[in-house]
């Protein structure tokens, strides 16, 4: 069993040594194979009931999003197909019934005024939230890792330049600038026949705007780790063996950074989902009739007194999704860095 070149004392979350094989002290004992860092982290996650529950809840939300077409086929109503027979024109187009129009056809009721099936809107809106959250987290993580590696390893003017850029990005009030930039960019990219922006392009702009203001957090974290790792013995050994910069960066340093990178990614996803919901709530994210949880909450706030279920259902589901992702991120952090676990 071979181990990585990283010394045992790696300063926190970068301790990724595989446990060495050990000899059973009993007579006739056998060699017990060491466990990889991933297996040790997975074992800690399985022992933590809260993290396990959060993981199962996250997987359930992802499965619902992926199976949205199948689930909505059961009710025969799509996310932008109104059911005018489910709303009462005599009461201002509010749903029939006392629970927001919940019935066998509409499992969670219908939207007041439009008659859209709320179940279909929610499961398709979940796809939007997860897509924006994960896509922006992946993009910001990739950019942050590359920038952090370059700043920490090369140092000098490269470090100074990238560090100043990080400081500038961290100083921006993220939400305010995204609110200002998103409609400007979308209006400049009018692509459909109605003078609006294609929905896929709107989502891409939203992902890019969130990622642009989020990568600096990961870059600052990676830079600090690289500054410590580049002075370690295994990096000096690689240099003595005439290893190139690419080999040192991606074969020596990067494998020892996967724990903080994964933790940063896990914590960025729920934050990005919350940001996307806030932008849609304010009218600069996903625009109706395309489904989105933030837009649902914005519309539902106008009908809360007459139809509280319209606000209650998407609000509780958004809370549960973000809570599950946050608990999962905390559990991943504790599993990968048990010495930093809070008491």
UniProtKB/TrEMBL annotation:
Record's GO cellular component terms: plasma membrane
Membrane topology (UniProt): Multi-pass membrane protein
BP terms from Gene Ontology: transmembrane transport
Alphabetical keyword list: Cell membrane, Membrane, Transmembrane, Transmembrane helix, Transport
Superkingdom field: Bacteria
Domain ABC transmembrane type-1: start-end pairs: 126-329
Main location: membrane
Family (UniProt): Belongs to the binding-protein-dependent transport system permease family.
PANTHER family: D,D-DIPEPTIDE TRANSPORT SYSTEM PERMEASE PROTEIN DDPC-RELATED, OLIGOPEPTIDE TRANSPORT SYSTEM PERMEASE PROTEIN APPC
Protein name as catalogued: Putative Dipeptide transport system permease protein DppC
Native source organism of the sequence: Streptomyces azureus
